[in-house]
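Hi Q.,

Before the meeting this afternoon, I wanted you to have the iron/sulfur cluster prediction in hand. No need to reply - just skim if you have a minute. The sequence and ligand are here:
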Amino acid sequence: MACRPAPEWELAAAAAKNILPLTSACNVRCVFCSHRQNPPGLEVFFLPHQSLVAIRERAAFLDRGKKIVIGESVTRILEGEPLLNPELLPILAWLRRRFRQTPIALTTNGTLLTPEVVAELAKVKPLEVTLSLNSASAEGRRLLMGDRRPEIALAAPRLLARAGIPFSGSIVALPQLVGWEDVERTVRFLAKAGAETVRIFLPGYTHLAPPELKFPDDLWDELRRRVASWQKEVSTPLLVEPPGLTDLKAEIRGVLPGTPAAAAGLRAGETIVRIAGKAVFSRVDAFWRLQAAGTVTVETEAEGKARAVQVTKMPGARSGLVFDYDLSPTAWEEFLRLLSRERPKQVVVATSELAAPLVRAAAFREDLPCSLTVLPVPSRFFGGNICCAGLLTVADFQAAIGATKADLFVLPGIAFDAQGRDLVGRPYAEAAPGRKVVLLDA
Ligand code: SF4
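Predicted structure with the ligand bound:
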């Protein structure tokens, strides 16, 4: 695996998406860490601890109207543990002075969330933490993550709750290693400690993963079944990743207590059909429009019954509704603009196996001016169960497109860097040589 220092253009491109990577260093060794099963040829970048000086320069690219994200993996920059950066606290304090009201989202493995650190984090609110706990037992943390001091992360949820820092829990579910009981116990532990949501991931594995990380496809169904049954007893919204969506119905996954949506009486399982009298395009549309709206009428349907409620809130304040992520309305609008600009007779959208049913669902509702083929593209490069758009390569697109004829090929922008190159450095135009290829950001 080629691993070079991250170039400034990659960091600037991340900052333009309000993502601030602070380091690639990590102090644990998760069995499911993607760094350990990447195929050769992958072009990834290593990031040494970033200084406050470097962050101040990059901050020019940040949008103060959007959440600043720290510690999330950015396609090509190896993720690390942000709390390892010795300048993290000065960086957060500076960001707070520069962007007074902008929420900061910090993802951490929890190993360094001591009482002293949590007290410092409380000074930079609005801050939300995603805690990658993975297991609520010391043995589980040791086994899954190689955490030598699991007691720190296990105490962190209560510390965060006491400090008034909203947090969500995340769990990479490996029942074949720790047992279903451990997964369930961890869900309940996070919910009881006050997590706003709990995300449960089935780990992606590539064809290079060790046998213990591989599992049959029906484990996804089993996880979804089990989570649905835990959800009956747990009020905290539980989200399975990937959610396996095939439609764009804006079904509410959960409602955060004490929020405008809870005060309005909205409930998990209801589908939002209209907001302020205008039809809802997707879950993402419902989430964004409710976030932007002030007091507004929301029409829902559940079990054949329709009702309308008023959600009372300030514009820009969160509604408290939790949805799975599906399709962005702005991406679809951009696609329609592309069609009216290019006027193709035949268009092919080549996208991930996860996104393909959602694109079909959007197209089904639309009277498109051309014929559309949606091509699900399997990941051959990574293999295993990898099925997200951000990990598709030019060779994957080529294999799926083959001799398919069309005037226009649309590929997901997330699979390419700011220079239009895939994860091994090939330009996107090579996906369909000699034909018109366009990238679209979701
Ligand atoms: S905490 Fe993240 S970066 Fe560190 S080993 Fe685990 S998965 Fe990899």
